[in-house]
What we know:
The protein is mostly helical. The chain folds into two domains: 1-91, no CATH class; 109-229, Leucine-rich Repeat Variant (Alpha Horseshoe). It has 14 helices and no strands. The protein has helices at 3-12, 16-22, 37-45, 51-60, 63-72, 80-89, 93-102, 110-117, 123-139, 145-149, 152-158, 164-178, 182-196, 201-214. The longest helix has 17 residues, at 123-139. The protein is globular and about 55 Å long.
Amino acid sequence: MDSKTLIKKLQSLSNQENIVGMARFGISPDKAFGIRKPELRKIAKEIPKNHKLALELWKTGYLEARIIASLIDEPEKVTESQMDNWVKDFDSWDVCDQCCINLFDKTPFAYNKVFVWSSAKEEYVKRAAFALIAVLAVHDKKADDKKFIKFFPLIKKASTDNRNFVKKAVNWSLRQIGKRNINLNKEAIMLAKEILKIENKTAKWISADAIKELESKNANIRKAPKLIG
């Protein structure tokens, strides 16, 4: 399947009611077909992994085409330059998060990009840094706790950023680190309590919300992985 054929297929599945609804969730409807995630994943599963096609789909600018691009791209062929170019194109939290969940976390550049993007001025680029932390905390089963503790200064620094899609990602990253295992749960709660002392409304929301979940009996803290070697 080539990009033109796929775009025509997406157009045929367009749902105007869903497009209108996207705006209520902060997703730009300008270049969207209103296709739900399960349907997009079903389409992506029918397409073999294809780096070239992923790049072509991304260039179309369509929200659904870009999400499929993140699903069919080949992580081993993704370059740092591609990742930087894609994050600059982010115009919604949806595409941002899907790229982090489906593709970016599987590249060898993921941890480094967190540090690079966390200081970005652009809202969605900065969100990508913290969304990536959250995703890595769940997906990278073998990573040492120290890798996540290194993110703590970034989380604390960004805790005063009151932009909606940044603060929610910062909160998300803190909560996911804290649910990774018992040790990180304690460390994340300590960090949250440090942030709570900051005289800033956004910082207090991020920390209070994280503490509430991480101290809950229903926090679903994962067991630490057994490291080999």
